[in-house]
Amino acid sequence: MADFSGKESGDSGNGSGSGSRRSADMASVELALFSRLFILSPDSPTIAIIGAGLTGLLAAHGLHKNGFKAVVFDKDPGPDVRERDWTMLMHWALPMLTELLPEDILADLPQAFCNPHLDFNEDAESLPCYNALTGTSCSGALSRMSKTEDGSAVVLEFEGGDKFEAERVLGADGVSSKARELLAGEERARVQRSGFLFATGITRYGDADKTEAIMKLHPVAALMMGTSSVGAVGTMAVDDPQDKSTWTTFWVKIWRGESVHLRDQEALNYIERETSALSGVFQSAIDWTPEGSRVFIDEMKYWVPVPWDNLGGRATLAGDAAHPMLIYRGQGLQHCITDVRNYVDSLVRVRGGADAAKVMQELDDEVVARGAKAVQQSLQEAEKSLDLETIRKMLMVTQGHGRSA
Ligand SMILES: Cc1cc2nc3c(=O)[nH]c(=O)nc-3n(C[C@H](O)[C@H](O)[C@H](O)COP(=O)(O)OP(=O)(O)OC[C@H]3O[C@@H](n4cnc5c(N)ncnc54)[C@H](O)[C@@H]3O)c2cc1C
């Protein structure tokens, strides 16, 4: 259990949000946020956050910065147990992120950039799309949630028998959220399969020419569309900025197909056998994958938000728990950050005397409406992405990474 009871100082002021597009790797960002969580307090905390992913950790920081007490629960003991790694573009939600985080973490955040040595100019801030035809601590997993008899608190129960009573609960436990299931009911909360498969490979070629071929497409990340698969390549980590043979890159491939959940060589074999080739460097990046590389294939899942029981305004959802979407246009994290900013603002209003039930209902109504729009857009983008005729109608083409939900 990680306590944000206000023991730390130095949270004054906001960072300056640039609104720029930076690519950061998932594990480094989580580590940056997680490393500050181990301050235990004897005070009884009031807000329980379920899930120490980016949404939960950011909520803890945002609440702490605004003088609230919060406790984060996660089924995993820490970020090191996460086997997945991917990169995320941060764009329109950056100013909100800087509002929520303390100065010292903001100062360290560039360390999580995939290439902290890159001079981020207008070119590096864009995401090119090529035409394919031409080239916290652990408390166990949450299992039950109920209001106390007088309705003044929420009782959380965890697998293994631990119980915890909190004034409020924020469910930030990701795509297959248990909090969502407990608040919306098993049927209504069930995550849906999209039929779109997503593969990613983490590649360290040990060969400067191969890395250079990827960099030539774009120094951060580039996309390819126009065949029955979508491809992407980019930088994930830079050891020695002068020696590209030390750099780690990634490739991505998306296609429509039968659901599979495969890892490493098996995943690579499946991609070669079952999916149509990309073109140029996008295909070479996959072909060059060194033996022993991490490769993942999963089916992307989604849930179109519908209203949930917020236990009289005491429980709500945020992040992927509230609106798991397909990864098109890199919107997921932006909405996670928006949720957290709105949650913190709502609690500040309640503390200032506003009607709690009303404020928290408005909060939920907004996240359901915004989340439903964003999830549906991600599904429509996926449908349009596999056909040259419809690609030009994608939000990705007409609006880029800008906000549309
Ligand atoms: C390949 C890929 C690329 C992406 N690229 C982008 C991008 O470019 N831009 C962008 O904006 N977004 C992007 N996203 C989306 C973004 O990564 C997610 O929206 C975001 O990380 C979700 O964070 P979260 O904290 O809500 O969920 P998660 O990170 O899933 O965290 C949930 C946490 O809850 C815990 N948990 C689960 N169940 C329980 C339980 N029962 N009890 C206790 N704890 C539990 C888990 O252990 C986990 O720590 C991408 C996603 C993927 C997969």
UniProtKB/TrEMBL annotation:
Pfam families: FAD_binding_3 (PF01494), NAD_binding_8 (PF13450)
Biased composition (Basic and acidic residues): 1-10
InterPro entries registered for this protein in UniProt: FAD-bd, FAD/NAD-bd_sf
Cofactor(s) needed: FAD
Domain named FAD-binding: residues: 148-378
Name of the protein in its database record: Peptidyl-prolyl cis/trans isomerase
Keywords: FAD, Flavoprotein, Isomerase, Monooxygenase, Oxidoreductase
Region named Disordered: 1-22
Record carries keyword Oxidoreductase: yes
Keyword Isomerase (UniProt): yes
Molecular function in Gene Ontology: FAD binding; isomerase activity; monooxygenase activity
